[in-house]
Amino acid sequence: MNTYDTIVIGGGAVGCSCAWLMGQSGQSVLLLERGRLGGEASGAAAGMLGAQLEVKSPGPFFQLCLESRGLYPQWAEALLAETGIDIELVQNGILQVAADERAARHLRTQLTWQQEHGGSGEWWPQEQLAAQEPLLAPAVGALYLPEDGNISAPRLARAVGEAARRRAQVREGAEVLRIDPDGSGVRVTTQEETFRAQQAVIASGAWAHALLSTLHVRFPIRPVKGQLLAVRPRRGRLTHTVHTESVYLVPKRDGTVVVGATEEHGAGFDRELTARGLATLLTGLAEVAPGLSDAVFERAWTGLRPGSSTGAPMIGRLPHQPQVIVAVGHFRNGVLLSPITARIVAALAAQQPLPELWRAFAPESVLPQEPQTRR
Ligand code: GLY
Questions:
Q1: Is the CB of residue 29 less than 8 Å from the CB of residue 23?
Q2: Is 260 in the pocket of ligand 1 (CB under 6 A)?
Q3: Residue minimizing CA distance to atom 5 of ligand 1
Q4: HSE of 17 in the Cβ direction (CA atoms, 13 Å)?
Q5: What is the pLDDT of residues 271-319, one digit of tens each?
Q6: pTM of the model as a whole
Q7: Which residues of the chain have pLDDT under 70?
């Protein structure tokens, strides 16, 4: 039986990033992916780094998002140095556009608490917004978040996949059926083989629920489908990522604009594009950016987010099965949080003490205080 220091289960942005960092530190790492590396939500994402955009209240989750966003410049450089792949980091801010006074009040309140807790931002009145982004429909104004940004998700998926291949053994098409912790480590069984390691990391995105259930961990993760499309403007350009209550528009360095995303709960693992989903995106695009109504349609696709009930991830060792580390439930923020998640997992794997902020996402902090993680 092949033996490793660590087996990572899941080859998305989170799993590949974990394998890369742990492999860099000299551990022997095996990465098992049921499909192909980066083939699911990570590569499908719009790639926003919306630390301030996505968080609705102050607290550890907001701090974790800010910390991970702050890692991105260095992360992008390290990936470029390791793989030669540029993830096309764009750091020119996100505009949260207010269509009416109610939305403007809400965004001003958001700005106040975010500034009090380490975020930054400024209010752009109607004229400033119109001057900066003439393709947009008239609006009351916008909250400008200068430190949020975006990357190319397909490039990120390729880069972390390549980085993982360089520092770990990778098996694609290897679906993990069981994890069996025992006194001295863990056995991980796929359809074909059983592997042994000191520890396993569960980072299997929307597919994590089944494995967590076999370990009696009650942290529900459900696939939440997102449909997206890309258009290529014929004239003019969007300068900033634009977010509204109906859609977001993410201008990419290749000149396209990614329009996202539906959030469909209860559709299971269905990945079909639907008439309703595409209509939602195209209607939103036409309303928010009439200047893009003659943009050329390029393509549409879907991704399955790993939806957790709180919207925040659980990252840490299982209290009663410490041979298993979980990095699950990243929901809308897997791309944003992959660098910080990899750091946390690498620190756990190296038995290093964690800062208090990181411990807020540990299973003992997140799971209900019942003995249900006991086998
Ligand atoms: N973070 C954007 C989304 O999940 O749609």
A1: yes
A2: yes
A3: 261
A4: 28
A5: 999 999 999 999 999 999 999 999 999 999 999 999 998 899 999 999 9
A6: 0.96
A7: 370-375
Residue with tokens 């549409």: 300
Q: Say how many Å lie between the CA of residue 261 and the centre of ligand 1.
A: 7
The CATH number given to 3-55+154-220+310-366 is 3.50.50.60
Check pocket membership of 261 for ligand 1, CB cut-off 6 A.
yes
pLDDT at 368: 81
pLDDT of residue 375: 45
What is the domain partition of the chain in residue ranges?
A: 3-55+154-220+310-366, 91-148+222-308
User: What residue owns the CA closest to ligand 1's atom 4?
Assistant: 332
Q: Is ligand 1 within 6 A of the CB of residue 226? A: yes
Nearest CA owner, ligand 1 atom 3 = 332
Amino acid (one-letter) located at 282: L
Choices 3.20.20.450, 3.30.9.10, 3.40.50.720, 2.40.30.10: CATH for 91-148+222-308? 3.30.9.10
* pLDDT value for 371: 53
Atom of ligand 1 nearest to the CA of 228: 5
Same CATH fold, 91-148+222-308 and 3-55+154-220+310-366? no
C-alpha–C-alpha distance, residues 59 and 55, integer Å = 9
| C-alpha distance from residue 17 to each of 21, 43, 63, 80, 257 (Å) | 6, 14, 20, 14, 26
Determine the residue of 48, 96, 247, 336 to mutate for testing ligand 1's pocket, defined as the one with the most ligand atoms within 8 A of the Cβ atom. 48
Q: What pLDDT is attached to residue 370?
A: 63
Query: Is 262:109 a contact under the CB 8 Å cutoff?
Result: no
